[in-house]
Amino acid sequence: MSNSFGDLFSEFYLWAAFFGWMTAQSIKILIALIKTKKFDCRYYMSTGGMPSAHSASVSALATAIGLGAGWDQPITVLAILFAMITMFDASTVRKAAGEQAKIINDIVEQFFSQHKVSEEKLKELLGHTRLEVFMGMLLGIVVAMLTFTISLDLKKNPDNENDYIEKAKSVIHSLKEDEVS
Cα(103)–Cα(41) distance, rounded to whole angstroms? Predict the structure, then answer.
């Protein structure tokens, strides 16, 4: 076991969680692009919406830990419990806070029409529906399995790294071509 902070970035656990989050946020951008015909990078830092990036991240992390450390290890149990608490929070507490924000915004709007007050609104899209959480969880599991598979392949065959980089470049290039057309 190494104590170097830099080693953290060579572990697939971190990358599985990061790619789970990044993939979920990218899907949100694509959904918004299809709906509005506008590209909006702010979705990379937004909360709420389909799929849940919180769920994707924590389920990717829990899956990665299960695959890497073993499903019978205490750290895996801890990761799964952490994921369950996070997903429960996303679909209940944060969703309720978003619904309360909507009601408060309506009250402020009604009050504003009669009195001079600030027009600043509360953020309403905070939580997730159960479907958004479930889809985020599935996405996270798939991303973790892909990350684990690639990680194992690169440990066995380090020369394959350039192949993965070229494949990624090809996908990005084809996405750019689709964006232009």
Answer: 28
